Amino acid sequence: MDFQQAFGHKTNIKKYNVYFILAICLVFVVMLSTAMLIDYRLIVVKQQNLSKEALKNPHAYFLKTWMIRYLLNVALVIIFAIYTILAMNRITVGYVYIGLWLVIWFGFAFGELILTKKITYPSIISIVLFVLVIISFYFIIKDIYELKRSLRYQKMKKREYRF
């Protein structure tokens, strides 16, 4: 039994799907960057229930919370983009890749809604991007299924039935 038949639940991501995912990542990073460049006092002070200490020094609060969130989100998106580029030719992806990144993109989409409990334009854009990621992952799952089906057919074709 060869490697492909034993582990037929992984596939490479097709080129058009990689470009689609990279476009989603680019839009997400641009959206995060523009949201950070908007007046942060409007975002931080007016949309969240802050403690008195945070209201005394909003600059420190901004650096501690929003910058850490921004850097973490951008780092995760860059890791996702690099892994997706590598998945085009060098490595194969499967259901674990889809499940892990689906959870992370769910956090990107609904994290702000959970934390601030208000709908903003960046949160709406994040939800739209999450839906686009789900559509992209559907095509990856479809490719995995087609690969599994062709491997099952080859396996069945190699069998010799004798009576």
Give an account of the 3D structure.
The chain crosses the membrane at residues 16-38, 67-88, 95-115, 121-141. Keywords: Membrane, Transmembrane, Transmembrane helix. The protein is mainly alpha-helical. 81% of the residues lie in helices and 0% in strands. It has seven helices and no strands. It starts with a helix and ends in a 5-residue tail after the last helix. The model has no long low-confidence stretch (mean pLDDT 82).
How do you describe this structure in short?
The chain is mostly helical. The protein contains 7 helices and no strands.
SSE order and pairing:
Layout: H1 3-6, H2 15-37, H3 40-47, H4 52-56, H5 58-89, H6 95-116, H7 121-158
Helix pairs in contact: 2-5, 2-7, 3-5, 6-7
Transmembrane segments: 16-38, 67-88, 95-115, 121-141
Organism: Mycoplasma leachii 06049
Keywords: Membrane, Transmembrane, Transmembrane helix
The backbone outline, from C-alpha atoms, is: elongated
Beta-strand percentage range: under 5%
Low-confidence stretches: none
Radius of gyration: 21 Å
What's the rounded overall pLDDT mean?
A: 82
N-to-C CA distance: 24 Å
Q: What class, by secondary structure content? A: mainly alpha
The helix/strand series, from N terminus to C terminus, equals HHHHHHH
Q: How many beta-strand elements?
A: 0
Helix content: over 70%
Number of domains: 1
Major sheet characteristics:
none
Total DSSP helices: 7
